[in-house]
Amino acid sequence: MNQSFNELPNGYLETISRGIDAVRRFHGGFCGETLTREEAVGKLKKEIETADAILIGAGAGLSTAAGFVYTGDRFMKWFPDFIRTYGIRDMYEGGFYPYPSREIFWAYWARYIYINRYLDPPKPVYEELLSLINGRDYFVITTNVDHCFQKAGFDKKRLFYTQGDYGLFQSTDPDDRNTYDNRNWIMRAMEAQGFVRNEEGVFEISEKGEIMAEIPTELIPRHPVSGKELTTNLRSDDRFVEDEGWYKASAAYADFIREHNGKHVLFLEIGVGNNTPVIIKYPFWQMTDENPRAFYACLNYSEAYCPSQIKDRSVCIEGDSGEVIREILRYDG
């Protein structure tokens, strides 16, 4: 990594610091929905239209609303052989299963990455979100790693993927701080398993249904210089690679917050759960509390709430985030 990146503002560490501060700060009660659905939608629509800037914090719930589910029909369509042989019950479980060989392990991950990174979500929720904030000054921080924001047309310079990217590999060598685009490898690995492209260029299981749950040994992804096996660029431990693009995005996030400090900022949290609240949820609470002109909104399927200290400058809406976004788009009250 270029030494100069150490001199850039680190938005990731700053947001973690804000999240930790929020843990100490908010000791009172919490509030959920206090308005009718129509009132809440109308209030949020007004905030979107009048805010000086919009900071979107997105979690897995947003991609779930767009149809990127890891169970059910979608899971059974792409992993029938893995389900039969290993008894895995969903894609997450399959990602941690101790497969008997690296060839089988990488066959699983090739499919997993292909459908969750290189295919579009079944529903246009991300495109609808972009149309909702079209023309506004915005930035996005997300723990998602599926690239959906960029595929929907969001400005790459206004995105910070904190936890990695399904579309990148990295070395297991801690001294190698580079990442490697995996698109070509994924396509070759899908073909090696027997998937065929349809007229739209999308891989499908052939009419004969013949696929193999493994790839050739020579196709295992390896470092271009050392030849050592690569791994996915996903934050799971201290070996996660924060590459040049990551540092630039982290700095852009920090700059956006500083640029709009004290202004009318809408902190729009969508689909963020409680697995990593210190990255988005808690910092959004803290920044809303510190800025009397700020407003906080939480869209969540079943856990929309905020600290009582900021309830007068907040709106919490439970339900499918995609449906809420469409309701805001249609609202003309």
How would you characterize the overall build of this protein?
This protein is of the alpha/beta class and 333 residues long. Helices cover 39% and strands 16% of the residues. It has a six-stranded parallel beta sheet, sandwiched between helices. Strands 6-5-9 form a three-stranded antiparallel beta sheet, covered by helices on one side. The mean pLDDT is 95.
Overall geometric form: globular
Biggest sheet strand order reads 4-3-2-10-11-13
**Second CATH tier, the architecture of the largest domain:** 3-Layer(aba) Sandwich
Order of helices and strands: HEHEHHHHHHEHEEEHEEEHEHEEEH
Task: Tell me the strand percentage band.
Answer: 15-25%
* Whole-number tally of structural domains: 2
CATH class of the largest domain: Alpha Beta
CATH superfamily of the largest domain: TPP-binding domain
The tally of beta strands, per DSSP, is 13
Short description:
The chain has 333 residues and is α/β, with parallel strands linked by helices. The chain has helices at 11-25, 37-50, 60-65, 72-78, 80-86, 91-96, 102-118, 125-132, 148-152, 183-192, 244-259, 281-290, 321-330, and strands spanning 30-31, 53-58, 138-142, 159-161, 164-170, 179-181, 196-197, 203-204, 231-234, 265-270, 295-300, 306-307, 314-318. It has two domains: 30-65 and 125-165 and 243-330, TPP-binding domain (Rossmann fold, 3-Layer(aba) Sandwich), CATH 3.40.50; 73-120 and 183-220, no CATH class.
Defining key terms:
three-stranded antiparallel beta sheet, six-stranded parallel beta sheet, alpha/beta, 16% strand, 39% helix, globular, Rossmann fold
